[in-house]
Amino acid sequence: MTRSDLLSVADLGREGIVEVLRLADSFAEVSERPMPKVPALRGRTVATVFFESSTRTRLSFEAAAKRLSADTMTFTPATSSLTKGESMRDTVETLDAMGVDAMVVRHASAGAPAQVARWVRASVVNAGDGQHEHPTQALLDCFTLREAIAAREGRAPADDLSGLRIAIVGDVRHSRVARSGVLAYRALGARVVLVAPPTLLPPDTSGWGVETAVDLDEVLGSVDVVYLLRLQVERIRECLLPSLHEYAERFGLTRDRARRLAPEVLVMHPGPMVRGLEIDAEVASSARSLVTRQVHNGVAVRMAVLFRLLAGGRAGAAGASGEGHGAPGAGGVAEAGQ
Ligand code: NCD
Questions:
Q1: Co-location of 123 and 270 in the same domain
Q2: pTM score of the predicted model
Q3: Is the Cβ–Cβ distance between 332 and 68 less than 8 Å?
């Protein structure tokens, strides 16, 4: 990992993922307090720089930064000098010059956050870049799964997901959530099967270390988790689907399919959900659905990510010297909260 950025799940490796999950355990505890705030990043500034729309990811990062007592700035393209022709480079360099410590960047083009990281001194967190990656979504999904399994088995969360078989269903081809998810689940030992019509599978998955399937009904009997993806209509340029109705029939988690699932099978979705298309409205709100938990846990996981990148020194200095700052264990976070 370039120690001061989070651009891909691959930057973390298994060890880094586990470190984030354990830090997030402590921050989840902070979030339960009547005053859910710790002074860990007091004096630091976190800017959300979203060139593409978002509800939960941006708000979640802003909530995370605020709970760490960082100052926050929100860059909104529609009301910025981008509309006067200012380039992305000038925009992020301007923010950087104001003394921002971390930029949380979302962009419709793959690789944009990595490019920003080359221009600025601040730490850069990829909040979703085109079809490429969405690392914090994968981290919060791992956290949520690990929490749900621990609760079911009445034990503390384990970092290992081996033994789990996760079906990622739908528009895998255009999904950054799927790409980051596969890296993270595999790093923690889970097996992944991608289920989609052939037109919505990536052209080559040989290096992904996953199985693929085109028949959802064949897969449902042998998986522990059904992770549904939103159809990325804004990225589908050619005619890849006969009709939305047919897609829902063949790849949607309908009420009928959900009824046939074993009781312990968990259902996830990164949001925004299109109820009735990839997931039935009732199934999305049923007991087996972790959708709300995913959103809830996103804040603690993003606190862990920001803390890991920024605590202990100026982010720029850490990045420039190639030495990051190790995150303290739970004790350190608990102390920060005193
Ligand atoms: C995802 C995204 O934007 O990549 N949403 C999210 O961040 N929770 C998934 C999506 O838009 O389908």
A1: no
A2: 0.91
A3: no
